[in-house]
């Protein structure tokens, strides 16, 4: 009698099997073969979560390996239980990322904050769609949800924008021609100089393409200085009955005019004295005669 083959078992060699003439059962002894079970650990999306675990045992024996703990993930089977089989001994444990809420703070290349923080919810290990910041372009690498931090810095650089500037007066009337400039996000416009006007508006900060108006006030026009025409009126001098002796002004430094006048007066006095003495002498002579 040839023993029946049972998967996963081997007939014990050297057994003598005799076929009975009645319904008496026939015992045939088998030995369980060695079996191998491999447990694979993978992430929900893709990729290996941990090294595969291989265990060995006998056919139909039970096994129960414990799944490794991976931070930020949950395994669909904490313990894999089963029996060693002659076929199909591979098992897979899938890890799903836990949900986290992250705060993203956009920053420029110099580390300055750009706009307000942004909260994003995602699962561990998943790539996150970087939030759009108007006027800026993300220049960093792919960002995935992490488990070690709740704030992720994102680096953005300002983009260039085309802006049409139209100067206007306080009444909204255009002054001169509009012109186009290129400005980066966050930069202030350079206010153009308009002859005869002073800029009195507010300098806008640019965040995108568009048009802006800049308000100017006309400078006051200076009045021309005109010489007043003065009409000379003839001066009428009325004669004064009382004689006025004209005094010649002396020179401020030398006093020559005053000295000259004194000299003339001295000579005149001397002559008058001489003539007086001469007259007296003649009168005395006549009396003596």
TrEMBL record:
Q: Which residues form the signal peptide?
A: none
Q: Which residue intervals make up region (Disordered)?
A: 222-261
Keywords in alphabetical order, please: Cell wall, Membrane, Peptidoglycan-anchor, Repeat, Secreted, Signal, Transmembrane, Transmembrane helix
Give every Gram-positive cocci surface proteins LPxTG domain span: 251-289
Q: Which InterPro entries match?
A: LPXTG_anchor (IPR019931), MucBP_dom (IPR009459)
Membrane spanning segments where? 262-281
Give the protein name, as stated in the record.
LPXTG cell wall anchor domain-containing protein
- Please report the organism this UniProt entry assigns to the protein: Paucilactobacillus nenjiangensis
Q: What taxonomic ancestry is recorded? A: Bacteria, Bacillati, Bacillota, Bacilli, Lactobacillales
